[in-house]
């Protein structure tokens, strides 16, 4: 029995992990684009971006997910999402990427704006190009400042992936709950649900160590 | 021929005129001190010379070449500004060292980037020159320290070495000791004095009147965006002709 449950939970956690990674891969660069938009000197673009960020951050991810998954099907003749788990995963990925890109963009913006203009001006009077100033002077200082808030946000993301269960994505909690209501010939099993918590704890524990290590690596300057 | 000719510089921020018809020239190897009360436009003038601000009017010539003419857009091309900046060096009031680099790396970074682009000097040669400059600043043993491990006076001396590394024709200082505790200003002023003795062409904005009088070959007193008085430091500081200069200087002799 134990092996059956662990096998099913592993499969669920694989889905959790996939959603987590796809969200990071999409939201980390998209967040940068959004942060540039929210700092644009072109006022309409700046306001549009900031409004979108405000709406996304001000409403629940669960609501966004439900809207993205169900509403297009209501408005079009049929749902644009492929059937089954593939469609659920695609919809989840898109909702998560958009949501997290907005959160990341605010962290980036804070990081970029916290670098004193003097750093850029010092680079300019030394004849550096904009590009050189970004890559050689400001980037690492920005990274140092965004690592702590980013690590908080990323650990939240690990837990947030469970929200995808609302559209029946078969992530780890879905897999654990299945043993309670009946699956693989078992029903009424409570411990698999508790056991899903172990996955989160171990994974987040690992991430915490990783971010702690990165912070320490960047500790050599202020 | 003067190394620097500044003619009729004007600068507005919105409706306020910050620089009004600023003209002066500077000879090779000479030091010019700019004094004046807060808000008189001293920083803005240095920022105009370093292309951090764009003047609304006037011209700037270095070694007889017109490098900026407010009425001629051809002198303001973005891609040329970078090279033109290299005529000037700027030492900031609050140092602006790059925190993630050691003292030596702060000094060598820009020169290495330039060498990578244009060819020429090897990394080793640049590094040796950087160490040499730090030694000249009395910081030979601090080459591998990060800025946060250095005192304010040491940081400012690294910043001076960093500016010198690119061999600017004219080195500008914007109140280089204002952010320092009194006991640390001496070491920075000593370094600048040494540079003056080696005939480095410099423009020094400072509130250190005694220093300005000793070191400068020429003094400019600014007030409200205009040059009120300029000339030999012993004239301007010890025997000012203008009432405004006298008023300003009296604040320094009182304490
Ligand atoms: N970016 C800016 N936008 C608007 N006004 C500015 C700007 N920079 C400077 N000013 C104004 O221009 C005037 C001159 O400023 P500046 O910094 O050149 O004076 P300063 O002589 O260097 O003064 P201090 O001795 O305090 O450093 C001030 O009134 C200041 O408020
Ligand atoms: Mg100033």
Plain-language structure description:
- The complex is a heterodimer of chains A (222) and B (255).
- In chain A, 79% of the residues lie in helices and 0% in strands.
- By secondary structure, chain A is mainly alpha-helical.
- Chain A has a single domain (2-221), classed as MetI-like fold (Orthogonal Bundle).
- In chain A, helix 5 (117-125) packs antiparallel against helix 6 and helix 7 runs antiparallel to helix 8.
- Chain A is flat, with a radius of gyration of 21 Å.
- The model of chain A has no long low-confidence stretch (mean pLDDT 95).
- Chain B has 255 residues and is of the alpha/beta class.
- In chain B, 39% of the residues lie in helices and 25% in strands.
- Chain B has nine helices and ten strands.
- In chain B, the strands form two sheets. Chain B has a six-stranded mixed sheet with strand order 6-7-8-3-9-10, sandwiched between helices.
- In chain B, a hairpin with a 2-residue loop joins strand 1 and strand 2 (16-26).
- Classes of the chains: A mainly alpha (222), B alpha/beta (255).
- The A-B interface holds A 116, 118-119, 121-129, 132, 136-137, 140-141, 144, 220-222 and B 50-52, 82-83, 85-86, 88-90, 92, 94, 96-101, 109-110, 113-114, 146-148, 162-163, 166.
